[in-house]
Amino acid sequence: MNATEIHVEVAPELHLFVPAARRGAATALATDGVSTLGHVVESLGVPLTEVGALVVDDREVPASHVPAAGERVSVRAVDRPQHVPGAPLRFLLDVHLGTLARRLRLLGVDAAYESTDIGDPALAARSAAEQRVMLSRDRGLLRRRELWAGAFVYSTRPEEQLHDVLDRFAPELRPWTRCTACNGLLRAATKEEVADQLKGGTQRSYDVFAQCTACGRAYWKGAHHEQLEAIVGRALKQR
Question: Are the CB atoms for 132 and 148 separated by under 8 Å?
Fold first, then answer.
């Protein structure tokens, strides 16, 4: 089969996914004439979760479009904030994003997390079953067709990861309402209700407590509260 040559330009926001030679003006690309544009873009290294629009000769086309010879393709990044249709906005994070999961929960964002590597098929299946946006730095996982929705986490630094997710999705923030350990909802609790989790110093020094309705873990304004308050404060300021 004769190759079909098209010209592809990738948005600057997506340059980290493509070879250096394709970062800039449109470059020629040979295709097989039968593959969809979505497949072609992924073959360049760009997960479709990161693509906001595919524009061919000034008209937007779906990922199922089969490019013809001579077409000029513009691969654009997602608009921010990104609207995710369907279920209430909630997330699923893979095994490498535990700190990000805890920070999202601290802000009251529904963030499920797998602390063990259950494998890409199981993660994708859970994303679909629970209608959760899959957050990952694994491009292979984000290319799985069964995902309900997904997003690449661009940084390796938790503070930057959090900023990126909040900027991209603009989730509703309700700090101090979720368990950072299991993602369950918190309720006000008396000292007597959580007494079995308190040591002597805590018993004497604190009177205000919350407890997870799912796992039973107790919370109070302990030694790390100022650090957590700073995280919450920066996130709220970002909004």
Answer: yes
